[in-house]
Structures are given as C-alpha cells and as structure tokens.
Amino acid sequence: MKITYHGHSCVQLTTEAGKSLVIDPFLRGNELAVAKPEDIQIDAILLTHAHMDHILDAEPISKANNAPIVANVELATYLSWKELQTIGMNLGGTIDLGFAKAKMVQAFHSSGITLADEQRIIYGGMPGGYVIQIDGKTILHAGDTALFGDMKMIGDRHDIDVAFIPIGDHFTMGPEDALQAAEWYGAKLVIPVHYDSFPVIRQDAQHYVSQLETKGLAGKVLQPGESLVI
C-alpha cells in the first residue's frame, strides 16, 4: 500500500490494486502543497471535521472523480446541499467502502464552517479521526485534536501500523502532547501532520521524530508530495 502526504493534514492511501482514498484535502490554500485538486485521483474522500483547512478541496475532487464524501452527518448534509455525493456517519460508526473500512473515533476540537461575508458560522458536527483498515494494514488519522486519555483506549483496541498525529500546537496539541499521544496510540510508525502550513503552527518535525525515538517509537517526516510504501 502507498501512503502519500499532500501537506497539512491531507493524506492519500492507495491500495496495491489501485483503489484510493484521500483524507482532509487542502491543497489550493496550502502554499507548501505540491499537488493540485485536479491531480488527485481517488475513489472516496474522508473528512475529519468542517474547518476550511480540511474540506476546501473536497468539492472539486469529489466532482472530478465521481467519488463520495464521508463525514459526520451534519457536515455530510451540508455538502449534500451542494449536490455532492455524501455518506453521513458519526463517532463510533464504521463504513465499508469495499476496498477499505473506516471507523470514526473521537477527537477533541471544534468544527464549523465560517461564512465571513455573512459573519456567520455553521455548526459542523462533532470532530473525529479515523481508524482505517486497508490492504491488510491499520491506519489511524487522529484528526485535529487535543490530548485526551481515551487515545490509550484507541491504541489498546487497535493494532495500528501507521498513525498520523498533529503536532502544530495553537489549534491542536503541540509536540510535547503529541509525544504522549504517540505512546498511547502505540503505532508501529508515527507521521507528524498539521504543522508548518501557517506561521502560527510552524514546528521542527524532525526534532519531534527524534524525540519519538528516545521513547522507543518509530517516526518519519514526509514532505508534501512524498510517498511511502508499507
């Protein structure tokens, strides 16, 4: 299976058979992104929550690929009003995409769509992460989150091969809390996400990975556009 990191929290998973999904597509708004929405070829889109830096490119990618968008029920309903294919779900639920199964797990964050021209915010449902079973591997995308104790429960209940964990601070947990999260998730490999896209979340991801190694954990920094085969 191939993992491609598109920057910020955007991750693409592609099976050996060529089936693919993308999580939290945010390309046009990220100066560090290498890919453009029209470059992304997928069979499904997974959204962790409703903030614009996680959903910005869901609409054009969904339309170009005739692909469903999986999200919490409130966000899915909102996007369905844009005549997009959506599948609404909620925390604790699992969806079978045929080539992958995705379980929505907890994340502690906020979620809403800001309509600046109207000075209005639309409630975006509960934020979450995903535990994804794909090509015989278990992948965790933690979503945007603070540190919380049930990360250990998630790690205890799932044999996680790769965990994508936010380290940016300010809007999510920072590197110190993300180290604890990595210990609790217990993944065989940790890849940091949600950093460097904006000045306020700049972090030394390589230092974070070196700190993981002092705790006996494996980590890897992926640059936007870089892929890893597991």
Q: How do the strands and helices of this protein lay out in sequence?
A:
Layout (H helix, E strand, L loop, with lengths): L1 E4 L5 E4 L5 E4 L20 E3 L5 H4 L2 H8 L3 E4 H8 L5 E4 L4 E3 L3 E7 L5 E4 L4 E4 L4 E7 L2 E5 L9 H7 L4 E5 L8 H11 L3 E5 L11 H10 L12 E3 L1
Parallel strand pairs: 3-4, 4-5, 5-6, 12-13, 13-14
Antiparallel strand pairs: 1-2, 1-15, 2-3, 7-8, 8-11, 9-10, 11-12
Structure description:
There is one protein chain. Helices cover 21% and strands 29% of the residues. Helix 4 (151-157) runs parallel beside helix 5 (175-185) and helix 5 crosses helix 6 (205-214). With 230 residues, the chain is an alpha/beta fold. 46% of the residues are buried. The strands form 3 sheets. Strands 6-5-4-3-2-1-15 form a 7-stranded mixed sheet. Strands 7-8-11-12-13-14 form a 6-stranded mixed sheet, with helices on one face.
What spatial order of strands do you see in the largest sheet? 6-5-4-3-2-1-15
Helices, by number, come to 6
Nearest-integer average pLDDT? 98
Helix content percent band: 10-25%
Helix/strand/pairing category: alpha/beta
For the record, give the distance between the C-alpha atoms at the N and C termini, rounded to a whole number. Answer: 6 Å
Largest sheet properties: 7 strands, mixed
Radius of gyration: 16 Å
Oligomer: single chain
Backbone shape: globular
Fraction in beta strands: 25-35%
User: Low-confidence segments, ≥5 residues, pLDDT <50?
Assistant: none
Order of helices and strands: EEEEHHEHEEEEEEEHEHEHE
Give the strand tally: 15
